[in-house]
Design a protein that fits this description.
The protein is of the alpha/beta class and 207 residues long. The chain has helices at 31-45, 62-72, 86-89, 97-111, 134-148, 165-183, 189-192, and strands at 2-4, 18-26, 77-85, 122-128, 153-159, 196-201. A four-stranded mixed sheet has the order 1-2-3-6. The chain has a two-stranded parallel sheet with strand order 4-5. Helix 5 (134-148) links the parallel strand 4 (122-128) and strand 5.
């Protein structure tokens, strides 16, 4: 899973109109390795430099992102997204942004039961480590596990994107979805739209 921008609001600095939570679903854990190997092969052939050895869309050139999305297209993965129009909820959600974030993750995770995930199945949820606060990380993991215990067993794995290739792959998928909603630009989205099985709005008053 990955998200675009954040849920914070500010009158003084530029911020996004939309927040998106994006899930990439698959039963084949070797897929990200295969995708990234193809990417590095393409980069070597085209003399594209990558000094960090991991990918983040905001640091990549446009033609590199196009290639990333091309190689991501795979019939064995699906994409789900839940979005918030932040203009609708400004001033209404209170101070507990972390709880709202967790609720969005829980909603998408529970909806996955209708697609790739079977009841009582053991699943792994890879999420980017967002907080240095151990309490918030523990709260996130515990809420996710508790919300789904009636459906399946969730192993929440928190890592930095540089440590986990799945987080890199879902990052550029989230980037394509973000530009669809924030800018109305469908160029990148059209490359992965056939992988998308769920797009829906999260209403701020949902539980």
């Amino acid at each position: 899973m990955d998200e675009t921008w954040d849920l914070w609001f500010s009158e003084n600095i530029w911020n996004s109109n939309y927040f998106l939570m994006v899930f990439l679903l698959t039963k084949y854990p070797s897929i990200p390795e295969q995708i990234i190997k193809k990417i590095f092969k393409w980069m070597k052939k085209n003399n594209v430099n990558n000094k960090t050895w991991f990918f983040h869309t905001y640091k990549e050139r446009h033609n590199t992102i196009i290639t990333l999305l091309d190689y991501t297209y795979n019939k064995n993965i699906s994409v789900m997204t839940c979005y918030i129009d932040k203009r609708k909820i400004k001033g209404k959600i209170g101070k507990d942004i972390h709880l709202l974030y967790n609720n969005i993750v829980c909603k998408l995770l529970r909806k996955s039961i209708n697609y790739w995930v079977f009841k009582w199945e053991k699943i792994k949820l890879y999420a980017a480590r967002r907080e240095t606060n151990k309490h918030l990380n523990r709260q996130f993991s515990e809420q996710i596990k508790d919300s789904c215990k009636d459906l399946f067993d969730v192993d929440v794995i928190l890592k930095y994107p540089s440590e986990e290739k799945w987080l890199q792959v879902v990052d550029w998928i989230a980037f394509a979805l973000y530009h669809k909603y924030e800018n109305g630009n469908l160029e990148l989205y059209n490359q992965i739209k056939d992988l998308v099985i769920l797009e829906e709005e999260y209403l701020w008053y949902e539980k």
